[in-house]
Specification:
12 helices; OB fold (Dihydrolipoamide Acetyltransferase, E2P); extended; single chain; Gyrase A, domain 2; 3 domains
């Protein structure tokens, strides 16, 4: 029996119609001589009504067994407003068990019962039955279709590039695949289609895109796994304004069609140096202010010798003013963050009716007066500009999460990334991902970061290089 309808399709207008449905036994209830089975597929749930002649089938039937049922659509005596098919039910005439399910290893559909990630991934085929997982798959599919349609309107061609290729010097280690035909030689899974898309530009394909699968043997991070998919775009005969215009349009249409959010264009812009100076990150979370401040001048003659000596060596003093009095235990947790960046800890002050903290007794009265203008908790780090800024930027993010400041939506272009930097170990100019004042930029990188209230903080990242 082939199904005639899905389990989320039938309505009161279908009353009296003979139908065939297929799906999984979502719930089974037996009342006297009748049984009620909620049949589920990816489109919804429909209630089946079985009389006593099906007793041998529904007795002992396990949840999530696969069923095929045929019968007539009838109006329910009492509607169920929680499902879209709640006005109807199927009076079953024929029922077949396609596959009887064993007891489930974990609760799939109860939101009150959570299973460990290890259990869920071990039984991934069951985990993917959960509505929230299905919504994620559908959301991603819709996003890809919107991108494809949008870019095709601007004369882009989607081209699939090879996954296997020659090893190239990228930012991470390659995954290697042994060659059967040439023993001792290896293919490399491509970290990005960089060289292939540049060949396409040389060949005259001036607008290319791909939902590119990339492979990188690097440490796992929240926003990066061993393999991931990126929207890969390359254009010829363009400048940065063209890239920004195309990307802004793509992101705007994604938000409009997927989330119903209208974005204003053009998006805000911020230079890399300003982002590091104010937020300690090249992908700043601008959903909350709490900007880093420069306290180098205040500590130059403060009496606090540790900071004074750092300033004499060319370091800066960066600080955060938190508009709350933090507990010492909270500050100790923040200190653990900066210790992972190589700093011994945080210098801190609590500004209330009186000044207290780790350096309260080490600074002179003049400095104390300058720092006591606003109440709250002051955190300080002294060191090289980039190191101190990025370490304190990590602290800023932790504070934003703790104080529940990261709400809403913030969209930002970060521009003017440096190309060269001074290599401390090699003692010469080298390709950089950090700050540099020694070379004029010959390449620009643009990162678009969007933040919103979703499971993942990064909804979309576009990376385009001239």
């Amino acid at each position: 029996m082939l199904r005639t309808h899905t389990c989320g399709e039938l309505r009161k207008t279908n009353k009296g119609k003979k139908v065939v449905l297929a799906g999984w036994a979502h719930n089974i209830r037996v009342f006297g001589k009748k049984a009620f089975i909620d049949l589920r597929d990816r489109y919804g749930i429909t209630q089946l009504v079985l009389n006593e002649k099906f007793k041998d089938i529904y007795t002992g039937l396990s949840r999530d067994s696969v069923l095929v049922a045929s019968g007539k659509v009838a109006k329910r005596k009492e509607s169920n407003s929680q499902i879209e098919t709640g006005d109807i039910e199927i009076i079953v005439e024929h029922l077949a068990i396609v596959s009887k399910a064993k007891p489930l290893p974990f609760e799939v559909f109860s939101p009150d019962i959570e299973s460990t990630e290890e259990t869920r991934l071990k039984h991934r085929y069951l985990d993917l039955r959960r509505p929230e997982m299905l919504r994620m798959l559908e959301f991603r599919f819709r996003a890809e279709m919107i991108v494809r349609n949008y870019l095709s309107m601007y004369e882009f061609i989607e081209i699939e590039t090879p996954h296997l290729g020659k090893q190239t010097p990228e930012g991470a280690r390659d995954f290697l695949v042994p060659s059967r035909s040439v023993p001792g030689s290896f293919w490399a899974l491509q970290q990005s289609p960089q060289q292939y898309k540049q060949l396409l530009m040389v060949a005259g394909v001036d607008r290319y895109f791909q939902m590119a699968r990339c492979f990188r043997d690097e440490d796992l991070r929240k926003d990066r796994q061993y393999e991931f998919t990126q929207i890969d775009v390359e254009m010829s005969f363009v400048d940065e304004s063209d890239i920004m215009k195309i990307t802004e349009g793509m992101v705007s249409i994604l938000y409009a069609q997927l989330l119903g959010i209208k974005l204003s264009k053009p998006f805000a812009r911020m230079t890399w140096e300003e982002a590091i100076e104010k937020y300690g990150s090249d992908k700043p979370d601008v959903r909350f202010e709490l900007a880093l401040q420069d306290y180098t001048e205040e500590f130059a003659n403060s009496g606090f010798k540790i900071f004074e000596n750092e300033i004499k060596k060319g370091s800066v003093v960066k600080g955060l003013l938190i508009p709350e009095i933090l507990r010492k235990s909270d500050i100790e947790k923040l200190e653990d963050i900066v210790k992972r960046s190589g700093f011994p800890g945080l210098a801190w002050l609590k500004v209330a009716d009186k000044l207290s903290g780790s350096i309260a007794s080490a600074i002179n009265k003049e400095t104390a007066k300058k720092l006591s203008k606003k109440k709250g908790t002051l955190l300080f780090l002294a060191g090289p500009w980039l190191d101190a800024s990025t370490a304190l930027g990590t602290v800023r993010l932790a504070i934003g999460e703790k104080l529940n400041l990261t709400k809403g939506l913030g969209i930002l272009w970060v521009t003017d990334f440096p190309l060269f930097d001074w290599g401390k170990e090699a003692q010469h100019i080298q390709s950089a991902h950090h700050h540099s004042q020694c070379q004029k930029l010959v390449r620009s990188q643009f990162y678009l970061e969007t933040f919103q209230m979703m499971n993942c903080s990064k909804f979309l990242q576009g990376h385009m290089t001239l």
